[in-house]
Write a structure and sequence with these properties.
The structure is a homodimer of 136-residue chains.
Chain A (H helix, E strand, L loop, with lengths): L3 H15 L8 H8 L3 H13 L3 E4 L5 E4 L8 H8 L27 H18 L3 H4 L2
Antiparallel strand pairs in A: 1-2
Helix pairs in contact in A: 1-2, 1-3, 2-3
The first copy, chain A, binds a DNA duplex (30 and 30 nucleotides) through helix 3.
DNA sequence: TTAATACCCTATCGATTTGATAGACTATGC
DNA sequence: GCATAGTCTATCAAATCGATAGGGTATTAA
């Protein structure tokens, strides 16, 4: 299940991308427009800023804004930042690989085999979608 | 992330499918072979039995066994029984649909649009995999 | 018929995660 | 220097997860 953090983050990014200009937008405006708890959104936007997707400006007239063009923001990156691994199981994760302690052999593991396919199919989707695609 | 319940359930099903005959297999044997907590596995096998994938036999010589041929057991069914919805968000779920309370319009929701594609890609994988495919 | 076997069911428990809130701090612009 | 708006830390209730304990019940072999 998708976490609310990811859901809200996606909505916030989409909202920013939908605006014509790239002027800073206040947290409060985003929260209100997308029906999100403002304080919770604060921490999410902070994450997005620290990972380089958003810029911020303090003080009057401040807020958050997209750094890159929406068509250059891949969903693979967004999902990994917000949700973490795309794979459903660590042993098939590209960026967050971990060996399963209970599984003696990945090559013959039925779960591994199935989850590998699921990961690839999800990756394909995320790689073919940019932020610009989501707001069309 | 895939729950251990699903992971263990898949492993147990695979183990049963890998055996030549369809004689009842004791919980203890499955648990030992797959490195699973026996008590936890009990509840999982119970779920699988109640949903019609497994049969059980009590008393001496009892255990669990597959009811259908492995090639007739679709991963869509297995995943829905063990993990629940295949969709990452209720508003794109076929079997567990729920409206998002915060989202005013699904048609224009960017999250909805993305998650619909992810669901379809996962469904395609699960529909093309039977239990027989996993143990090849 | 009886006793062993093995599935069935309920309850509980600690750990972790999640979503949300509060409050103080800091930088900016007028 | 004061209002504005992002930044950071701490906390918290609720839910979920994985696991465990312990007794109940049906079946079978002897």
């Amino acid at each position: 299940m998708l976490s609310k953090k990811t859901k809200y983050g996606l909505k916030a990014l989409s909202y920013l991308a939908s605006l014509e200009d790239r002027q800073p937008v206040q947290i409060a405006e985003i929260a209100k427009h997308e029906n999100i708890s403002q304080k919770f959104l604060e921490s999410i936007l902070l994450t997005l800023r620290k990972s380089g997707l958003l810029g911020s400006k303090k003080g009057k007239g401040g807020g958050y804004y997209l750094i890159k063009d929406p068509k250059d923001i891949l969903m693979t990156d967004v999902m990994r930042i917000l949700e973490g691994p795309i794979a459903l199981v660590p042993c098939v994760s590209l960026n967050f690989y971990e060996k399963c302690e209970d599984c003696p052999d990945e090559a013959t593991c039925s779960v591994h085999k199935l989850m590998l396919q699921v990961r690839d199919s999800a990756l394909t989707v995320y790689r073919h979608n940019t932020l610009a695609d989501l707001i069309k």
